[in-house]
UniProtKB/TrEMBL annotation:
InterPro entries: CMP_dCMP_dom, Cytidine_deaminase-like, DHFR-like_dom_sf, Eubact_RibD, RibDG_C, Riboflavin_Biosynth_HTPR
Binding site for Zn(2+): 52, 81, 90
Descriptive protein name: Riboflavin biosynthesis protein RibD
Stretch list, region Disordered: 324-353
GO terms for MF: 5-amino-6-(5-phosphoribosylamino)uracil reductase activity; diaminohydroxyphosphoribosylaminopyrimidine deaminase activity; metal ion binding
Free-text function comment from the UniProt entry: Converts 2,5-diamino-6-(ribosylamino)-4(3h)-pyrimidinone 5'-phosphate into 5-amino-6-(ribosylamino)-2,4(1h,3h)-pyrimidinedione 5'-phosphate.
Amino acids binding NADP(+): 160, 202
GO biological process: riboflavin biosynthetic process
Basic and acidic residues biased stretches: 334-347
Cofactor: Zn(2+)
Keywords attached to this entry: Hydrolase, Metal-binding, Multifunctional enzyme, NADP, Oxidoreductase, Riboflavin biosynthesis, Zinc
Active-site residues from the entry: 54 (proton donor)
Length: 353
């Protein structure tokens, strides 16, 4: 059976995922160059500031096959860029290499591109087919799309709860609810999100590190809500080992890897919306909210979330403690299982990207 456009676009998506955790705030992109149903070049965007997928794809073509480039079709999961950023426009490369046909997964919502790359290819007489596996291509870069269409990060809410619905013991006492395999999954989430947020109580009682020590990948920007700056300096959050924002109502100042940002009236939905705008202005395209219950509930009540990941330990019952947040308005997308723990994945249908 002869491979179709979808087959080669699936390969683009496979390649693009290899850039997860390394290219933000840029999108993940994969590219494949095909001649006569034979792939002669592949590439993906490997790291932020580095060559784009199209460049790596063309450079991967063997010297013996380079004469085939003007007779080949380029498949790329996202519209080729048409502007000078950290690298030259990929649309210019395609024109320069005389590639006659380009198959695009989806358009790029970034204002400097958004159709301009496709227009440039059309103007050069290049055939362009777009919208192949479009929903899959958009889903892959949901962080990027949300940032540039809603001007805020993609917001993932995550918590672990006992079978009877508690996230901590009495008086906020930390309890290890999920297992070791689930902990690695959580660190994978951290590695693929640009920032991670906790509230004052979680910072004080749990003393989290909020890093990716259990998974290979970059540590996220740590964010802690501490309205009156009551948290002790001895906490892991203030160790200076990774960039950390302290949102408060008292002062703005910066030390090595530690920045205090003053926000007035840090309560209610207005705080959450201001937080989204502030993070977007800093190039943060994804935010993982890990707690505690009150902070999570604020996001839920405001409808200011895109994904909820609820980890449940079916064999654990605490009988009393701090109740888990009350989910609202989510559509169950699916469930995963990690050595006894269940992770239910919800999407917010009110926030399309």
């Amino acid at each position: 059976m002869t491979p179709g456009h979808e087959t080669y676009m699936q390969r683009c998506l496979q390649l693009a995922r290899l850039g997860a955790g390394s290219v933000a705030p840029n999108p993940m992109v994969g590219a494949v160059l095909v001649h006569g149903h034979r792939i002669i070049g592949e590439g993906y965007h490997r790291r932020y500031g580095g060559p784009h997928a199209e460049v790596n794809c063309v450079n991967a073509v063997a010297e013996a096959d380079r004469h085939l480039i003007p007779e080949s079709t380029l498949y790329v999961s996202l519209e080729p860029c048409a502007h000078f950023g950290k690298t030259p426009p990929c649309a210019d490369l395609i024109v320069r290499e005389s590639i006659p046909r380009v198959v695009v997964g989806c358009r790029d919502p970034f204002p400097s591109v958004n159709g301009k790359g496709i227009d440039k290819l059309h103007a050069a007489g290049i055939e362009v087919i777009s919208g192949v596996l479009e929903s899959e291509c958009r889903e892959l870069n949901r962080f990027f799309f949300t940032a540039h269409t809603r001007h805020r990060p993609w917001i993932t809410l995550k918590w672990a709860q006992s079978a009877d619905g508690f996230i901590a013991g009495a008086n906020g006492r930390p309890v290890a609810i999920s297992g070791a395999l689930t902990a690695r999954y959580v660190h994978h989430l951290r590695a693929t999100h640009s920032a991670i947020l906790v509230g004052t109580n979680t910072a004080f009682f749990d003393n989290p590190q909020l890093n990716t020590r259990l998974w290979p990948g970059p540590d996220p920007l740590r964010i802690v809500l501490d309205r009156q700056l009551r948290l002790p300096a001895s906490l892991h959050l203030f160790n200076g080992e990774q960039p950390t924002l302290v949102l408060n109502e008292l002062r703005t100042e910066q030390h090595h890897n530690l920045e205090y940002v003053r926000l007035e009236a840090m309560t209610g939905p207005n705080l959450i919306k201001r937080l989204g705008s502030m993070l977007y202005s800093r190039g943060v395209h994804s935010l993982l909210v890990e707690g505690g219950a009150q902070v999570l509930q604020h996001f839920i009540d405001a409808g200011f979330w895109d994904e909820q990941l609820i980890i449940t330990a079916p064999g654990m019952r605490l009988q009393k403690g701090i109740p888990a947040p009350k989910p609202s308005g989510g559509a169950l997308e699916g469930s995963d299982h990690f050595a006894g723990d269940r992770v239910d994945r919800y999407r917010n249908p009110a926030n399309p990207y």
